[in-house]
Amino acid sequence: MTRKSDLRQLVELRAMRMRRAQEQAQRQHNRHDRSAEALRAAKAESLVREEQRRREEEALYSSLAEGPADPRALERYRGALSNLDHRARALEEHVREAERRERQEARKREELAAEYRRKEKLHDRIQVLAAERRREAAKRADLVNEAEDEEAIRPKGRKR
């Protein structure tokens, strides 16, 4: 292989890698967007559930305040409050997990973006080098053509 074809193949290979890196970065961007949306949904659900929990607790407390309660009723209230607490903790864990996933996807997104920028910079350098080589080759070809033209114009001298 010649150096010219090697450089051309390198430029083509680098362009293909750039397209792959760009596609990978876009897929990661989409994953991050989905995880951010999941986080927003989890937070919204948490707010709705918290309001629901507050209403249920108020209903339990107001029924307790109506009058004396027997031990079974107190046990049911305690169980209901415990169940509400358990659901609240599970929901908080769900929100924390969504936040963790969103941070992880954001970190991957930044890493891939940095890798893409690095590859883009290298690709640009290779393209500049290839353009420089093409200019040098064109200049050499022009000089050779000029020399051939001068030789063709110059009268041939006698041989001694």
TrEMBL record:
Gene3D superfamilies: 1.10.287.1700. Keywords: Coiled coil. Residues 74-115 form a coiled coil. Residues 19-52, 137-160 are annotated as: Disordered. The keyword NAD does not apply. InterPro entries: Flag_assembly_chemotaxis_eff. The keyword Coiled coil applies. Residues 33-52 have a biased composition (Basic and acidic residues). This is Type III secretion protein. It comes from Sinorhizobium saheli. The lineage of its organism: Bacteria, Pseudomonadati, Pseudomonadota, Alphaproteobacteria, Hyphomicrobiales.
